[in-house]
Amino acid sequence: MSYRVAVVGATGNVGREMLAILEELNFPVSEMHAVASRRSKGVEVAFGDRTLRCEDLEQFDFSKVDIVLMSAGGAVSKEWSEKIGKAGPIVIDNSSAFRMDPDVPLIVPEVNPDAVKDARKKNIIANPNCSTAQLVVALKPLHDAAKITRAVVATYQSVSGAGKEGMDELWNQTKAIYGLGDATPKKFPKQIAFNVIPFIGAFRDDGYTDEEAKMWVETHKMLDPSIRLTVTCVRVPVFVGHSEAVTLEFDRPIEPEEARELLRDAPGVLVVDKQEADGYVTPVEAAGEFAVYVSRIRKDPTVPNGLSMWVVSDNLRKGAALNAVQIAQLLDEQGVIQPQSGYRTLTV
Description:
alpha/beta, Rossmann fold, Dihydrodipicolinate Reductase, domain 2, 6-stranded parallel beta sheet, 6-stranded mixed beta sheet, threonine biosynthesis, NADP
C-alpha cells in the first residue's frame, strides 16, 4: 500500500522538480498523476523511468488521490486549493495564496514540524517563499541557542525564481548582447544579463516590495514574531540558486565557532566555512543539492552580539519542491495521513 499523488503544475520548473524528488527520495507512490492546465493536456513529463501524460486540471477527479502537490501559481491555487481540500486530499501549496491564512499551517519541516497538526483545518499546507525557506533553516538552530533580536538580509535571487520565462530571458539576453541582438527586457523590468535588479515583486506603500515583506511575515509565523527583520531582495543573473547575506543580532554573545557547531548539528544544513579563497559555497555548487549551505560566519563588530553569514541553497529544491515533499513525509510520519509503506528519510 502507498499513496496516490497528483502534482498540479507538472510542466513548470518546480512541478518537474517535485516529480524528480518524489522519485529520488523513494516516496511511496501507488499512483502518480501529472496535472496541468487544459493547454498542457497530453504534454509528457518524466517520473523516474516512466513517462506521464498531463491531465486537465478542470476535468481531474481529486477525490481519487491522497496528496496534491500544487505548483501552478497563486491565482490557480486561490481558485482550486480549497475545492481540492474539500474533496479529501491534503494540498501542499507552493504559492503565496494561503501562507498567512491563520487556518493554514506554513511549514519548513526542520523549523516547525509540529504545525502539521493543523493540516486538517482546511486540508491545505503552505510552502514558504523560496528565500524564506533557506533563511529559517539557517536561523532556527541559532535562535534556539541565543535568541535573535534583529536580522538584516540582502538576497541575491536567481532567475529560476521567476519561472521558465525568467530563465529564458537571461539566456536570450546573454546571447543577444554577445551577438549584438535585441536585449529588450520582457519578463524583468530591466536588463538581467550582466546586471542586478534591486526589485522583485511589486512596491508597497512603505517602499518595500511584497517579496521583501513575505520574508519577514513568514519568518514571524514560522519562527518568532519578535524578530525584527529588514530585507532587500535583488534579482541576479544566475540560473539556479538563491544566496543571502545575513547579519544577526542576539540577546547574548555568540562566537562564530559556537555558531558553526550549532549549524553543523542542525538538520538540513551543511557548513562550508574556511578562510581560504574557495572556502565558501556559491549557487553553482548548491544547484541540484538538497542542503542549505552556510559560509562566511564571522563577528559583526558594529553591534553588540552580532554575527554575519552567507546562506545559499537551490531555490527549486529546498526553496520549493524538496520542502513540499518533506512536508508529505512529515504528514506520514506524524500520522496525519496513514502510513502505508516505507521510504528513505532525507539526511544531508
